[in-house]
Amino acid sequence: MRTLAVVGTGLIGTSIGLAMSRRGITVHLVDRDTSAARTAAALGAGVTADPTGPVDLAVIAVPPRAVADVLAEQHARGLARSYTDVASVKALPTRQADAGLPDPSCYVGGHPMAGREQSGPLAARADLFDGRAWVLTPSPRTAQTALNHVLELVALCGAVPLVMDSEVHDQAVALTSHAPHVVASLMAARLQHGPPEALRLVGQGLRDATRIAGGDPRLWADILRSNAAPVARVLRELADDLAELLTALEDVARDDASQDPGTGAVVDLLERGAEGLHAVRPARVRRSGPTLRVTLGETPGELARLLDTVTDHGVGTEDVTTRVDPVQDRMTAEFTVPPVTAGQLRRRLGEQGWQVEGAAVRPTRRPLPQPSHVDDLWDQEVLPSQRVASLPGVS
Amino acid sequence: MRTLAVVGTGLIGTSIGLAMSRRGITVHLVDRDTSAARTAAALGAGVTADPTGPVDLAVIAVPPRAVADVLAEQHARGLARSYTDVASVKALPTRQADAGLPDPSCYVGGHPMAGREQSGPLAARADLFDGRAWVLTPSPRTAQTALNHVLELVALCGAVPLVMDSEVHDQAVALTSHAPHVVASLMAARLQHGPPEALRLVGQGLRDATRIAGGDPRLWADILRSNAAPVARVLRELADDLAELLTALEDVARDDASQDPGTGAVVDLLERGAEGLHAVRPARVRRSGPTLRVTLGETPGELARLLDTVTDHGVGTEDVTTRVDPVQDRMTAEFTVPPVTAGQLRRRLGEQGWQVEGAAVRPTRRPLPQPSHVDDLWDQEVLPSQRVASLPGVS
Which residues form the signal peptide (chains A, B) (predicted)? Predict the structure, then answer.
């Protein structure tokens, strides 16, 4: 690819322009707001001059419901040989392209999973897509040339391509992005009606839970309406859960909390929530290594000193368990140690006078590394899919 | 205060023990789980031996619905002269203390706004309450001695006392903590039912929005049921908003998204959400300083170089606006500059060849500081209440 056009020089379009210009591609910037295109050009994202002939690929970087019209218009004008978009819904533009373009084989839907809280060209960054997933939704009729142009775009932007059916993509983002946005907005909307004292009790938990509600309301209304059926399906089920919980809480409130109604429904929802979270937690590192057991004396603060020593060797406090032996009335602390520091830690604990039991440590042939960061000390087993899953999504 | 008892040596109780022991107070640790009390003692949070007479203050650090029974039991035993608790609901324990204690004047409800995602004594930290708000809910019948004991506890833990009516506290936390927990759980529970592809599209937005759903389901069920009426009130209003949004989205879905129904309801909710967010945003720093305007030439990337220079002088990219003069066809960039670097920045831009216009900069008498952190450069006007409001809340 030698030439690219970006239609719509907001955050995403301008970031693509910056990334591609850096790779030596000639980027033509188009926006109905001349000032936005000029700003993108002044940042180094490309030129505002029209191309002299069709470019290799045009990226339509406009809101979801505007994609079809802009695509048809630029296609009619002969702007490019291949086309893609960056909207966060894919079935609607794909359907509209199939119906509206004389030759839909030149279009491949795309959705880079990257974004920032600020919008507009001034917020753009050349490295916005570095290591991020970039969904592509080719159909059986997509031309190979078009697919390859888009794959090259994704590669040059430093992203990881992820081919997906457009309907499956829309169901997935309804769950992972669109419904969460609605839920954050529903909660944030309540904050307009609280007692003034409530503001002094606001914490990071609430801020995190509502942060995504800060997105541009018009853009998000466009996204939600473009993916209405999948989003409504998720929210309908959520509303059913909420209705059940409300019945339980209102029962409790009526009984003046002296009885115990509603426990089942409340615990059930909270447990399902905690389980659902496991699906989206960053890759859990599998920790395997020798287990050590230390017997503690009666000196106050002895356990704190032990924790200081073991955490210096890559053990997290959440990996430590304590137990009191009822017969001997002695306390023991047990923990799994990263293999590379186990020998060192065992010696250190011995030097400090603790009685240590536990699996014999295999001698290592490599010299022991100096611990720098806890996670470096463990055998991390992270699946590639989990790595992708831990990428921040588009907002 | 010389002596303290902590009943319940979990995260909060043990952290209080650590903080108070460090201040030279004798702390007696009580827990029905001997191993938890022994663990807290081994960390240096106090001693497991019973006090020889009544201590000055006992902190009942057990789940909300257990407070009344434990308080009555310890009071009957004569454990302390004054009592407080740390539960995240206040009306229920206050009502129960009034009804159940022979002398309720010795009890002051308390709620430190601090927590961690881990629980149990091993997660405890002496500095857990540093700078955090700690709500106290004395009633007209509270004895001055009891109030002063609790104020001393809060001060020695490094927290900021905040006196509040117990009912107002419960309405406030229903809105800022309990309802958000339910909403996060409702969303997280949906994640059990997504297409497998969805997991690859999970981003930081979803993780932040659902993070608090990771709390202990049994403890949280206890909290929600103890504050059922205020939580139900918030959630009922939220459910009404959700029902309206669902109707709009289902209308859009039925019309196959070709028409434009539902825009009003969808935009309305999103706008109310964005407005509600302003209430909980960390204190917005009021930025006042001279405004500078720079005229740009035609060189690509010129704006990027300008941004590099101005951001080095404490200007954020969100504070920059660009404009194209339609008559002269020239682009200008305008931004407000922190007063202390304005003169320096103006000279620097001049040296780099830019044409700068804007308010004359008053000469400073102090030598210009070297910028270290952007926020240090501004006249920050943060109200004390906003500072408290930006503290992480309990979870």
Answer: none
